[in-house]
Design a protein that fits this description.
Elements lengths: L2 H5 L2 E4 L5 H9 L6 E5 H7 L2 H8 L3 E8 L3 H12 L5 E5 L4 H17 L6 E5 L7 H8 L5 H14 L4 E3 L2 H10 L5 E4 L18 H6 L4 E4 L1 H4 L4 H13 L2
Parallel strand pairs: 1-2, 1-8, 2-3, 3-4, 4-5, 5-6, 6-7, 7-8
Helix pairs in contact: 5-6, 8-9
Length: 241
Amino acid sequence: MSTKNTADKLILALDGMDKIEAFRLIRKIPELCWVKVGLELFISEGPDIIFALKDLGLKVFLDLKLHDIPNTMGGACRQAARSGAELLTVHACAGLDALIQANESAKDGAAQVGLPAPTLLAVTILTSWDSNKLSSELIIDQPIEQRVELLANLAVKAGLGGCVCSPLEVKNLRKLFFLPFELVTPGIRAKGSSLDDQSRVMTPKEALHCGASRIVVGRPITHSTSPLSAFKNICKDLVES
């Protein structure tokens, strides 16, 4: 696997920064292919941030985790698809009807402005959750692995292009859902590094070995004293995997 190919599998999360900080970071990593725009950056800057990132030649993972009634989900996805983002997240637990409407509306919104439709990814269980919290706070006694599989199946039935899951569930899901179905995994940490607010994590190399399509990396790069070196080290690790 070439360095260019591995860079295409690494999505840099622009979390916890404003537009100026994000663009300053991006300029330090010329080989960067993908960035993730989450709720914080999107709400502070609006849709214009997507257009600005696209103008830099970057691919955008718009991580809004939309979750609402079907009609509202559809309307939101129709508008989001007009931005040109390649990936867009919705919550699988919104249900089958909402996922279907979101997917069809995204295709419609992109077509209205002459753009390819984004790939919708259904969020399964956030990587900050573990089985104990799921049981004690939501009274869901189903093991996380089974819950994730159930929600991923909803995404498939709705015609979505993939899902978001922790790296710990990727191996099982890849056995069930083959490429080009995307399995995008946050919760990526180097061995021995801080878990921060994540519970279900894995190293970049391990996640790809287990079947992840792309990995989302934030703080290990953005909080590094040398973001370029951190980015290159992850890519190098993936090339050698």
